[in-house]
Amino acid sequence: MKKFLFLLLFLSSFLVQAQSYLPKSTGVVIKKSYYTFSYDEANEQAKWVYYELDPKFTNGKAKRHNDFRPDRSVRTGSATLADYRSSGYDRGHLCPAAAMKLNPKAMSETFFMSNMSPQSPDFNRGIWKDLEAIVRDWVRNERRLYVVTGPIFKDNKGKIGKSGVTIPGYYFKVIYDPTDKEKMIALILPNKKCSKSLSSYVVPVDKVEALTGINFFPQLADSKENSLEAKSNAASWTWKANKHRHSASSKTTKSSSSVFNSSKTNKSGKHRCRAITKKGTQCKRNARSGSNFCTQHAVL
Fold first, then answer.
1. Residue whose C-alpha is closest to residue 21's, from 217, 163, 172
2. What is the pLDDT of residues 125-168, one digit of tens each?
3. Residue range 219-230: average pLDDT?
4. Cα(286)–Cα(293) distance, rounded to whole angstroms?
5. What is the structure's pLDDT at 114?
6. Phi, psi of 270 (to 5 degrees)
7. What is the DSSP string of 118-143?
């Protein structure tokens, strides 16, 4: 019984602490167990997602199950799987699944559609995946990080689905490291294939605030907040995980919607699904009418 009460106290203290640096902006704020977000109904996705990281999150054993699903906690209705189907865009995580390995619940909650944003496959499986990997490296070294990430609705690329999900032109990530020598860093990346090094996308936090209207880490004393936000310096962070860059875009996996093959019409007048399976071969099923993919791969 004592162990159970201790666990409850630990979880309660964690949840309170995890919300201690929430950004300030307009929009409906929704709290999950291990991250919080502000939902932007006009664009059918989160305006920002906030989460705390320490090594137990990234070193956990929870497995990924790809249980994408609408988020019923969004009263106006979140985006759906159908919105992304055959759109040509990935369901890009804002709070990364790989950073939420603490337990099955933490992992599963990252697959709510409210945590997704339409990302170019070259971006999602390339530099965005690399950035997520390097943040995991940072938290193992720095012990604790507070992260805010989200879309920047500038130079948008249109909308997808019946819900009208906006395809953002850019994405941001802002990180506060409170340990040892405090520091912050911010990055802005275009929603497309990126060929530059990750460190070249570092910008002052103030620039992200100007583009998004979000006030990051307002709980800090003004003097400290202003100083840290003005000193978003790439040289203050290690970039060894940059070796991962673009490795994802060269691999073919079913779970990442595959690399698409050319679509050829068979004798029946139908054409084969363009997805590539885990074995590296083209799917043998016929594509659905009006789509380049079969029923199974159309939702990936």
1. 217
2. 999 999 999 999 999 888 899 999 999 999 999 999 999 999 99
3. 84
4. 7
5. 97
6. -100, 165
7. EE-HHHHTTHHHHHHHHHHHHHHHHS
What's the pLDDT score for residue 299?
40
φ, ψ dihedrals at 41, nearest 5°: -60, -35
Query: pTM of this prediction?
Result: 0.75
Residue position matching structure tokens 């530099």: 127
Extract the runs of DSSP E, i.e. beta strands, from the chain: 28-31, 36-40, 45-53, 90-93, 116-119, 145-152, 159-160, 165-166, 170-177, 183-190, 202-203
Q: How far apart are CA 142 and CA 184, in angstroms?
A: 12
Contact 161, 79 (CB under 8 A): yes
Q: Distances in Å between the alpha carbon of 28 and those of 76, 117, 146, 186?
A: 10, 17, 20, 24
Domains annotated on the chain, with CATH? 17-250 (3.40.570.10), 252-300 (no CATH)
Can you read off the two tokens belonging to residue 85?
């189907």
Sequence-ordered alpha helix ranges (H) in the chain: 2-18, 55-58, 81-84, 104-109, 121-124, 127-142, 205-212, 222-230
Task: Return d(Cα 241, Cα 167) in angstroms, integer.
Answer: 28
Cα 13 from chain centre: 25
Render pLDDT for 55-96 as a digit per residue (tens, 0 to 9): 999 999 999 999 999 999 999 999 999 999 999 999 999 999
CB 170 within 8 A of CB 155: yes
Residue 87: count of CB within 10 angstroms of its CB: 16
List, by residue number, the catalytic residues.
93
3-state helix, strand, coil in the chain (%, to 5): 30, 20, 45
